[in-house]
Amino acid sequence: MKPTEELIYEHKAITSMLSVMNTISNNIKEKKVFYTNDVEKIIDFLSIYVEKCHRNKEENVFYPTLLLSKYPPEGVGEMINEHKLAKGCLNEIACCVENFKLGSTFSGEMIADCMANYVQLIEDHIQKEENDYFPLANKVLSKDAQTEISKQFKLINDEFVGQDIQTRYDELLKSLESKYLH
Q1: Nearest CA to 113 among 19, 13, 11, 24?
Q2: Nearest CA-CA partner of 42 in 182, 142, 140, 177
Q3: pLDDT reading at 11 higher than 80
Q4: End-to-end CA distance of the chain, in Å?
Q5: 41-100, pLDDT tens digit by residue?
Q6: H helix and E strand count, the chain
Q7: What does the alpha-carbon distance between residue 22 and residue 24 come to, in Å, rounded to a whole number?
Q8: Structural domain span for residue 122
Q9: Which of 11, 25, 129, 150 is exposed most, by the fewest CB atoms within 10 A?
């Protein structure tokens, strides 16, 4: 599997979680019941699967290797900045959940807004990666470079995710999809 294929595979899980987040955000805006424990599970998924694993692969392996290629792309700094913006949105969601649990009803609306902002940011980010950066990488990175990236990706998977956590997140995603998307 090419490194870009692995990243796209992870994007599929992330996109599914974004759909769940979008549904929860809309439910909050429509004054329907929402469960803070589900939002906390989403925060956990985004903190580990997205931030520690996926983002780490992109920022510490994929983009640096791409920048060292014969045809380095412009705009990588913007992509990394979007990662930072996403982390900020994630932190805001977590703070809003804590405030909501302490009784601030206004925080529910803030959760909805922060989740909607996160979803929009990440959907746009994924689209840029899959339409611009990944096809370029498949063209300009040698087979050896791609093999090395894959090895580094495996180390990151082993360090931050592992099989137990991967199974837990797969089950979480299925559970939230069946609860919110069906």
Answers
A1: 24
A2: 177
A3: yes
A4: 31
A5: 999 999 999 999 999 999 999 999 999 988 888 999 999 999 999 999 999 999 999 999
A6: 9, 0
A7: 5
A8: 3-180
A9: 150
- Higher-confidence position of 166 and 114: 114
Distances in Å between the Cα of 35 and the Cα atoms of 28, 32, 111 are 10, 10, 11
- The residue-averaged pLDDT of 19-41 equals 95
Give which of 143, 81, 141, 89 is closest to 112, Cα–Cα: 89
- Do the Cβ atoms of 137 and 3 come closer than 8 Å? yes
Average pLDDT over the chain, rounded to whole?
93
Chain-centre distance for alpha carbon 78: 16
Query: How many domains does the chain divide into?
Result: 1
Read off the pTM.
0.94
Q: What are 112's two structure tokens?
A: 């909805």
For residue 134, give both structure tokens.
Answer: 């990944």
Which CATH number belongs to the domain containing residue 38 in this structure? 1.20.120.520
Of residues 91, 116, 100, 120, the one with CA closest to residue 27: 116
Tell me the two tokens of residue 182. Answer: 């069906």
